[in-house]
Amino acid sequence: MEKKKIVICASVSFEDQIIEWKNKLEKMGFEVIKYPTKIKEDLLTVYNKEFSEHYDAISKADVVLVLNLDKKGISGYIGSGVFAEMAFALGLNKVQNKNVSVYHLNPISKGELPYSDELELWQNLGWIKLFEENRVEKV
Q1: Residue 32 belongs to what H/E stretch?
Q2: Rounded to an integer, what distance in angstroms lies between the CA atom of residue 95 and that of residue 57?
Q3: CA distance 98 to 5
Q4: Which end of the chain has fewer surrounding CB within 10 Å, N or C?
Q5: Residue 114 sits in a domain of what CATH number?
Q6: Number of domains in the chain
Q7: Greatest distance between any 2 Cα atoms in the chain
Q8: What is d(CA 10, CA 117) in angstroms, rounded to the nearest whole number?
Q9: For residue 139, is it within any domain?
Q10: What is the pTM of this model?
Q11: Is the dihedral of CA 119, 74, 53, 20 positive or negative?
């Protein structure tokens, strides 16, 4: 059976947790095809390439896992970039009939983000789901 391809989406400030989850997901049998890494070069020089590669990986993924950890005093933080990545994956599902499963690691924060209502709606529609390790076979 072919390994499911997964992309990790998260704030790059969670660098240590991203690597922990990359290793964990690989042990669970996933092929991690892209995850955020700190850009060491000049941001303006490499941003276009990094941006394009990340979205291209999402278009090839079976699963997107959002590491929505605590940041800026907000539990389950999802930044605007990660929100856009989630919307892109959902758009692929709706417009191109892809089947990219979008999971978030922690519960969605209620009302603390400008797009909390949208995230809650997506969850209520079943478009995004809480990632539960013990139910990974259903991913």
Answers
A1: strand 31-34
A2: 17
A3: 13
A4: N
A5: 3.40.50.450
A6: 1
A7: 42
A8: 19
A9: no
A10: 0.91
A11: negative
